Amino acid sequence: MPVIATRDATVSYGGRDVVRGVDLVVEPGEAVALMGANGSGKSTLIKAVVGLVPLAAGAVELFGLAQRRFRDWRRVGYVPQRTGAASGVPATAAEVVAQGRLAHRFLGLPPRRGDRAAVARSLEEVGLADHAHCAVDTLSGGQQQRVLIARALATEPDVLIMDEPTVGVDAETQAALAEVVADRIDAGCAVLLVTHELGPLTDRLDRAVVLADGRVVHDGAPPRPVGEHADPRHQHAHPHAGDESDDFWGGK
Amino acid sequence: MTLDTSIFGFEFMQRALISALVVGLCAPAVGVFLVQKRLALIGDGLGHIALTGVAIGFLTGGSPLWTTLATTVAASVVMELLRSHSKTSGDVALAMMFYGGIAGGVYLTGIASDKGVANLQQYLFGSLLTAGWDEVWTIAVGGAAVALLMLVLRPWMSAIATDEQYARVAGLPVAGLNLLLLMTTAVVVSVSMRAVGLLLVSALLVIPVVTVQQFTRSFRATMYGGMAAGFLIAGAGVLASAVQDVPPGATIVLIGVACFVVAAAAAATARRVRRTWRRHPPPEGEPLEVELPAGPLGGPQPSTKG
User: Between the CA atoms of A237, A243, A246 and A250, what dihedral angle is there, to the nearest 10 degrees?
Assistant: First the structure.
């Protein structure tokens, strides 16, 4: 039974198809990257998988259940695209990571020992144990990203769904994160990763699915960097990351 | 100037003080989530709607407290449905509440003209001193219920207030919790109109929270600190207004604004001093940004494409 299965998934924004008839299957324990240029529909597809945007056609199944009927969200660890973690009221890294345990807790009951242990362990894994009680908005961009990943790890999921987890993260942190994720893959956790850059994280992948203009154009071995992109100094700064508007590549 | 506390020998002053303290303690418990959700003005919006509720009370002869509660809760449900199920943005819905609430209040008060505009004024700006014991009890029970609920649900409420999309993927009942937040805000607005008045009700929801968050690092500390600050500000406001014989609502809010300005200035100064004396220690595991020497695999030239 696949962890994630989309059949002919189509998503429209305002009558325009952004994702067009995508079939995507992630098996248990499999690590898959979803790649493509800005506006190719990869983030939108991920959002449809976790139910944040509605499908115009097709179906999404999680652990063999139709997405709308799926309730066992503690099996899913989700890392959203980072949108300035600083919000109205300060929160510590531990408090943000503790949100990852809410799927395990009964509404209104205090956390159990296991919940607190999972939070501490996740912060430890991403190397932020010393920063558990720092306000998130005083952390660097890379550290904030690690907090979001720790939050997903704290859920102790069977599948990690990550939307561009390495945007704005320096190479060394990327390598550290890749190790953390590789440990989870070794432990049997499936991974679905949206990215548009190759890096340490993509070295451990079993498969890459490349989208262009909302369609799957490649499903197989992960691509290897060539030319300028293979240069470790190559900067992957994407000023429009997450921007859903039309781009030069005619996406969406 | 010596503080003459003999006035608290009067029962009406005791009632006023208790009501204000309860509201000061409980309003920030809800307000912290509103500030987090960037809905700081929602209390004011519901305050305007509450005018219509008070006028309905005049018109029907019912207790304004209960008609206000019913009206604001109904309005918060409509507001949440509009926000989540239509293309109406939060601030448009808010604008409609401001206009519609005031207009409804004035219109309905006009119909019930025998009760007079002077009567409406005591709800607009607060009239702590005329509260009876039964009203004090209503405030205490309503406030305690709201504060308890928010304290117990803090992790869930802060999750939906911080990142609603993540909360949905975590399987939390986001729609229900959003509705609960607006409804508890409506309860706070209704019970605190006695203390600070409908037009100033937003102040006690927001000011204590934004004052203490100048110094806090955690959500929990901000919530507890906000409640303590609200308690102190409300108490100080009633004391000061009693001594000077001025309206308590306005006094409470002015003291709150003063506290915020002082806190914001102090926090800015403290940050500057700290930056001068010791840099924020570089976090462990945070690598230095270093330039790697060009390798044989490097492209035709080092790319620094942005």
Answer: 40
- From the list A80, A99, A135, which residue is nearest B165 (CB)? A80
List CB contacts (< 8 A) between B292 and chain A.
Answer: 232-233
Q: Which residues contact A94 (CB under 8 A, 6 or more apart)?
A: A119, A120, A123, A132, A133
Res. B234 pLDDT band, cuts 50 70 90? very high
Alpha-carbon gap, residue B43 to B201, rounded angstroms: 7
Note whether A189 and A76 are within 8 A (CB): no
Q: How many CB atoms lie within 10 A of CB B259?
A: 19
- Mean pLDDT in residue range B72-79: 88
Chain B residues with beta carbon closer than 8 angstroms to that of A171:
287
pLDDT in the model for residue A103: 87
Say what the alpha-carbon torsion angle A163, A166, A169, A172 is, to the nearest 10 degrees. 150
For residue B134, what pLDDT is reported?
A: 83
A124-136 mean pLDDT: 89
Do residue B302 and residue A231 have CB atoms under 8 angstroms apart?
yes
Q: What value does the mean pLDDT take over residues B30-38?
A: 91
If one counts every other C-beta atom within 10 angstroms of the C-beta of residue A197, the result is: 16
User: What CA–CA distance (Å, rounded) separates A61 from A64?
Assistant: 6
The predicted pLDDT at position A250 comes to: 38
Instruction: Find, among B55, B90, B50, the residue nearest to B74 by Cα.
Output: B50
Residues of B in Cβ contact (< 8 Å) with A95:
158, 218-220
Position B28 scores a pLDDT of 94
Nearest Cβ partner for A89 among B36, B156, B284: B36
Q: Helix %, strand %, coil % for chain B, to 5? A: 75, 0, 25
**Which tokens sit at B299?**
């492209």
Q: Which of B87, B169, B280 is the best substitution to test chain A (most A C-beta atoms within 10 A)?
A: B169
* Cβ neighbours, 10 Å, residue A85: 19
Kindly determine whether residue A172 and residue B300, on different chains, have CB atoms separated by under 8 Å: no
Asked if B221 and B115 touch (Cβ cutoff 8 Å), the reply is no
pLDDT value, residue B111: 81
What is the set of domains in chain A, with CATH numbers? Answer: 4-230 (3.40.50.300)
Give which of B30, B41, B149, B162 to mutate to test A binding, by max A Cβ within 10 Å.
B162
Give the pLDDT band (50/70/90) at residue A245.
very low
Looking at domain B8-277, which of 2.60.40.420, 1.10.3470.10, 3.20.20.70, 1.10.8.60 is its CATH number? 1.10.3470.10
Residues in B closer than 8 angstroms to A237, CB to CB, are 305-306
B187 in Cβ contact with B73 (< 8 Å): yes
SS3 A63: coil
Nearest CA in chain A to B162: A87
Under DSSP, is residue B171 helix (H, G, I), strand (E, B) or coil? coil
For chain B, the domains span 8-277
pLDDT one-digit tens code per residue, B182-218: 899 999 988 888 777 887 888 999 999 999 999 999 9
